[in-house]
Design goal:
This protein is 43% helix and 13% strand. By secondary structure, it is of the alpha/beta class. Strand 3, helix 5 and strand 4 form a beta-alpha-beta unit.
Length: 391
């Protein structure tokens, strides 16, 4: 099997699993108890919190554990809306956010909030002047993702943070795809809240965190207990938190070497496909993109058919976000960057890992070339195109 869907989820690293195991059966105490067994769990949680805070340039007490990135996004946006409603009910986001942000904003619109959805250019980049023009006296939050989960484009986060700070507006970023892949310092980038998830960086599923800058007055998202300094009720997922801490430490320590290799392979794959397969193009910015992300569109092809045929060859890929798999609608991200419906349907996302080799990519391109040729041979649209070329 060649696994190229690491934006959907990653393999849990062996050292992460090893670190988690004792907290299932040996150090299984509830961290809220006062006896020794529980204190071992509490120490483990504190250690993981310290690792994550260090990785962001944040304070330990600014890290709050969640069940994943979607919960962290919901918490940041809904709790900010509630806490700052007296100031205003206007929120700014983009048309290419993950649905954890978009659907939360749609929910708030039904509660009387107003949301501005910024456009992006063909590369998926936000226009900073449009952002400045969208800010009003009643704007309480800007939520713009660090890097897009589908096309890999990295947004101008520092500039966005500076604009938000200058205007006195809170800035939240969904960094689920970016954390562990690119350096992030919340002070340097003027980030007030940041969401991340463990399973995107070789950690376990079902665990993530929300960074909340000290002084931001957002309230609890889950009620019922005093955990997470009374801001997120519920018995802590100690094994998951331990695994997340190890995964973060691992990702930060290997980032420079790992991403250098991924960028080399990413660019090799892009060049190889563009050379070998006609009538295709890269989606997202060619340079300002995640180290491991390749998103391509192929004319006269259905993305789902490509995925099925690749799977038959033992190659795992996707056509967009795993959270929208099964949907017949074209990607909202690809439509937002200007693709037509039929072009958006022919997209393929390949996301690499540290285990990906050049030989893997050669195999993928060879198989993909055959698959595209076969599917185009069956396409009446492609037949019409060829007839038009001959005239």
């Amino acid at each position: 099997m060649i696994y190229l869907d690491n934006a959907a989820t990653t393999k849990t690293a062996p050292e992460v699993v090893d670190a988690m195991l004792p907290y299932f059966s040996e150090y299984y105490g509830n961290a809220s108890t006062i006896y020794g067994l529980g204190s071992e769990s509490k120490k483990a949680i504190t250690n993981a919190r310290e690792i994550i805070a260090k990785g962001l340039g944040a304070r330990t007490e600014e890290i709050y554990f969640t069940a994943g990135g979607s919960e962290a996004d919901n918490w940041a946006i809904k709790a900010t809306a509630e806490a700052y409603a007296a100031k205003g009910k206007h929120i700014i986001t983009t048309k290419i956010e993950h649905h954890a942000v978009l659907h939360t904003c749609e929910y708030l619109e039904k509660q009387g909030y107003e949301v501005t959805y910024l456009n992006v250019d063909r590369d998926g980049l936000v226009d900073l002047e449009e952002l400045k023009g969208a800010i009003r006296s009643d704007t309480i939050l800007i939520s713009i993702m660090f890097a897009n989960n589908e096309i890999g484009t990295i947004e101008p986060i520092k500039e966005i943070g500076e604009i938000a700070k200058e205007k006195g507006v809170l800035f939240h970023t969904d960094a689920v795809q970016a954390f562990g892949q690119v350096p992030i310092n919340v002070d340097e980038l003027h980030i007030d809240m940041l969401s991340a998830s463990g399973h995107k960086l070789n950690g376990p599923k079902g665990i993530g965190f929300l960074y909340i800058r000290t002084g931001i007055k957002i309230r609890s998202f889950l009620h019922g207990g005093a955990q997470e300094r009374s801001r997120r009720a519920g018995t802590e997922n100690v094994p998951g938190i331990v695994g997340l801490g190890v995964a973060v430490e691992r990702a930060i320590s290997t980032m420079e070497e790992r991403t250098r290799k991924e960028i080399e392979l990413r660019d090799y794959l892009i060049q190889h496909v563009e050379k070998e397969i006609p009538h295709c193009w890269l989606n997202g910015h060619r340079k300002k993109r995640l180290p491991n992300n390749v998103n391509l569109s192929f004319l006269y092809i259905e993305g789902e058919s490509m995925l099925i045929m690749l799977d038959m060859k033992g190659i795992c890929a996707s056509s967009g976000s795993a959270c929208t798999s099964g949907s017949l609608d074209p990607s909202h991200v690809l439509l937002a960057i200007g693709l037509k419906h039929e072009e958006a349907h022919g997209s393929l996302r390949l996301t690499l890992s540290e285990e990906t080799t050049r030989e893997d990519l050669d195999t993928v391109v060879d198989e993909l070339k055959k698959i595209v040729e076969r599917l185009r041979d069956m396409s009446p649209l492609y037949a019409d195109f060829l007839k038009g070329q001959k005239k």
